[in-house]
Amino acid sequence: MHRIAHAISALPDNPALSARIVVNGVVGICDPLGGLYLPDLDILVVSDLHLEKGSAFACRGMMLPPYDTLATLRILDAVISRHNPKTVISLGDNFHDRVGSALMPDLFRGMIETMACGREWIWINGNHDPDGTTALPGSSMDELNHAGMIFRHEPALNAAAGEIAGHLHPSATVRRRKNTCAAPALRQTAAA
Question: 25 vs 22, 37, 156, CA distance in Å?
Fold first, then answer.
């Protein structure tokens, strides 16, 4: 975990590392920590956090290192600290399964409460967590229409102008000995 904190602190606050995009006339800054900051709207967009993934797998007998949630929350805290947004929108698959937010340890719940303090927090429901969150700050919804933008988890088949969606996180296919398997996302944090 020390390596995670060191890696986060080692990322320079250098505009050259961020990419600027325009979506439906709204400027966005793609932060290398995995967020999309919309400065004119003062919104930070993240996606596919998959919090409590290790716990979900452990319940199924597959043991993963138990610090995925802590690592993801530390990176989320760093990107929030960098931009200090008025609003955070998390575009679904916030938790790895339907019970992740209900069973999340108090330590992690407290970290989210601290990050959400003084700002609006919107949890968009995803295919992994369609029922929303339990006992966390903010509100859960299927999609949000705001300032000419549509925030949702899965891209629509006929996407409207201004759609910002998650769900399609980076992955790779690995071939080995005539078998093909999908590799997990390269990063736990959001890439909006």
Answer: 6, 14, 20
Question: Which domain, by its residues, includes 77?
Answer: 2-10+25-166
The verdict on residue 16 lying in a domain is no
E-strand ranges in 109-154 read 120-124, 139-141, 143-146, 149-152
Question: Is 180 among the domain residues?
Answer: no
Per-residue pLDDT of the chain (192 residues; tens, 9 = 90+): 444 455 555 555 565 678 898 999 999 999 999 899 999 999 999 998 878 865 654 555 555 666 778 888 999 999 999 999 999 999 988 785 555 667 788 898 999 999 999 999 999 998 767 687 878 889 999 999 999 999 998 888 887 889 998 877 654 444 556 554 444 443 334 444
| Number of domains forming the structure of the chain | 1
Query: Within a domain: residue 140?
Result: yes
Nearest residue to 164 via CA among 16, 17, 49, 27: 27
pTM of the model: 0.77
The SS3 assignment for 164 reads strand
Residue 76 lies in a domain: yes
106: three-class secondary structure by DSSP: helix
Among residues 18, 59, 53, 55, the alpha carbon closest in space to that of 37 is found at: 18
